[in-house]
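Researcher: Structure prediction, please.
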Amino acid sequence: MPSASNEEIERRLEELLTPAVFSQLAYYRQLKMRSRILTLPLMVALILTILWRQVPSVRELTRVLERENLLWCSAVKVSQQALSERFLVFPAALFERVYKALLPELNKRWEERRQRPIPLSIRVASAHFDQILAGDGSTLEALFRKLDSLADAPVGQLAGKMCVVIDLVRQLPVELWFSEEAQAFDTKFIPDLLKLVSQRTLLILDRGFYDFQFFADLMAKGADFITRPKSNAKIEVVKRLSYTDCVKDMIVRLGSGQNGAPILTLRMVEVRFGKQWYRYITSVLDPEVLPPFVVADIYRRRWRIEDAFNTAKRLLNLSYLWTGSVNGIQLQIWATWLFYVVLVDLGDSVADAMNLPFERISLEMLHRGFYHFIQAFNKGTASDLVAYFAAPENHDLGVVKTIRAPIPKLDISPYPT
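Model: Predicted structure follows.
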């Protein structure tokens, strides 16, 4: 069964999303959508309800809609068939537009919070870059055949692939692309990434985007990158900048020049953590801009995008696709990330209230903690979502991640000794 409704949680959703949703009504009318009931505001309210209340099926959703007001919409009777068909054809572009209309407000709210600390490596890099972005691709899982439209779909058919770019400063996804080719390489999204970046952008990438021409094109646009080299990379050391028992920082020439691929002058940073050495390459040649340990720490923060994929797929059920149509898949993708950024905004509010870095907040436990908040709200012992999760007596809910090992102080010296 879906979880109970709660006026405080819905108030927060309405406060954030109402302006973004209703700002798209003119565009909605331009599309000449015929349905007089399943409009844009109602469709957004329905899908957000699916996500935050964990409604298990379209049939159950129609029951809830018939009996309850949902966010900004009044209860109304709609058939399961009508709603299922609407999921197939309702333009995903509308959800994309709502998402992108919401981002400026989320950025503004982030700027207004001053108590939670920003990681040192991000502060160092932000002095030289306007954007610090991490991009990665993820394959969508096999279609979960909830609707009759999927009855004839092959069992185990993959739904496609998405590429997401996250702002590592604000922790918000800034762009998303979808491909029907589930087996496509991440490099398929290189043209999209090149359109996105601009001067003074630092882009963090895994080896899936390892492409010398791509690196050269990024540098030509005035952008920089950090990634990991391949184990068989052909490297020629040009100059040693630092060489100690824990850091090797060098200017290198990378590439063989085969098949017209450019040979690039880059910086290779090797850092030892414990007994293990880790190697990175970056187009930032000056260690005064990005010291060696800062390079390593920023790359480590690329895991935020993996964490975001895990939250979207497992917690918000993006692994279970409601429809087999390309448009329907895209609609669910945009809707899921729309709710994800609402969770991020709540997590950042809690971090700010507790004077903790955002990375210490578990979005999963925050989402699961809604149940406990609703119980406390109904008893009259809680009224504010952020204050409830920040209260010391509720720390047992696991919203704050446990530190399992001491975090060493980050060395930001450009030439470590």
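Model: The first helix runs from residue 7 to 22.
Researcher: Thanks, that helps.
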